[in-house]
Write the structure tokens for this entry.
Amino acid sequence: MNSKALGLAVAAALLPTLAAKAARSAADRGLSKLGDGEQHPAHPDTSFKDAARWAIVTGAIGAVARLATQRWMARQPGINKAEQPEL
């Protein structure tokens, strides 16, 4: 495997994960500003309903970011595995 192919493989593995992490972090910051901002979802004083809502929203935002990144990468020449010749 040449260095360009290796770099593309690493990027294909890391970019969706990093995009999802960044999106979840941004969602966490935004949701904490909307709520009282003091309580973490795992805190005992946080209701299960609020904690579940927090998990669902941040998880969905992370999943959509990962999907968008994967779809963008699939359209890039040299990254789409269907377009790559066997090495």
